[in-house]
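Q: Hi! First time doing this. I have a protein sequence and I read that you can turn it into a structure. Is that right? Here it is:
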Amino acid sequence: YMELKDTTRDYSGALNLTFQNDNEDTDTVNWEDLRDNSQRTENSEREKNVHTNQVDEFINIDSDLHENKHDSADDEKLRLKGVLCAAFILAVIFWLIFDTAKQGSRQLISFGGLVMYILLMFIFSKYPMRVAWRPVFSGIIMQFILGLLILRTKVEFEVFNWLGIQIQTFLENSDTGAKFVFGEKYTDHFFTFKVLPIVVFFSTVMSMLYHVGFMQWLIGKVGWIMQIFMGTTPIESLVAAGNIFVGQKESPLMIQPYLPYITKSELHAIMTAGFSTIAGSVLGAYISFGVSASHLLTASVMSAPASLATSKLFWPETEKPKVTLNSGLKMAKGESNNLLEVARQGASSSILLVANIAVNLISFLTLLAFIDSALSWVGSLFDYPQLNFENICAYVFMPFSFMMGVDWEDSFIVGGLLGYKTFFNEFVAYERLAKLIHNREMGGSMYINDVKQYMTVRSETIATYALCGFANFGSLGMVIGSLSKNAIHGLFI
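A: Yes, that's right. Below is the predicted 3D structure, encoded as structure tokens:
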């Protein structure tokens, strides 16, 4: 019987083993050689480990240096980009100051009004210390660029003017259907049989353009440009672009599957974009009033980036958006099978819109007449029977209209129009503006019984831009109800 006394370590043959036999004495082992071999082996392994650790440390240090160089390069790029953006913004600001100074004091007042509105929104901001200034300044600059290209360059102005004329001519095709249904004297009831059929016709055309995919492509391209330039989220950019062409109830439906995942800041941006623009379906109605088609088109386009700028200033993003550029955002599509079915559905869907427009105008104008009568009675008690709702709104909104660049003599009238738009709707305001434009074109007396009958062309233009939007209390309730039905009612709490 033989017993293995030590086999716990392998020293590559250098270790001598001790065996014990029951019938024999224990052999003497050369322990000194054993210790020397063990020591050499341990030293060799220790040196190997030290060398390995040094190599690992060198690799880690080299990797850290590479990452630090990469991070520093990124930081330098960000700083350079920030400096270039700041320089560009300052250059634009100084150019605007000198350019507006050449035009006269009224342009300087408009520029001061812009600064005033920005300061007011910053003061009343939800999180003023967390404002991301890139979308704010880039949105304002984008609006200025669009305005300069459209209004200050001859080519772009002629293009938009031509486009406005073509749209006006295109919308006149609705007269054929109105004449067939209502007779030759359909214009005797101008609003019902002339204006409202335009809404039906435009709604039909827009539905057909959606079916062939043109509107999705156009809205997607415009939204992509705003997203890249302003740094806004895909949802905000897409809805803002959509509001140029469709209404504030329809545009959120393009991203309906993503509505439950939006942040409060994105919700605020969606609502602001809806209030800042008008729908294409009612654009034709305003044009039929006699309002400039080119200015209405320009106002709708310029309001899209401006709405995102004001929204990001008033309610900055403090959460991490769940829907990003990598989410593969897709717009909802219709389920119709052919173009004729789409045209029929588009015409049918406009019935509710036409009915709402007619009913709201009847109710608002009737209510306005009652309020004016009541205020006139109250005013007569103080020897001021001219008191009415328009006068009260004019005094309230007069400073704001003046800071927009309206002539001081016309700011009282524009203030009243802003009151009509805010407390009733833009239809009432544009109908009143159309009367003022008609009075100027007829060339009558400017004052009758000390009441101004029309404004300058400049004041009419500014009023056209100021009234172009759905910002009123009626639209606020409608949008809250519409978005609440789309599974995001918790965000309103």
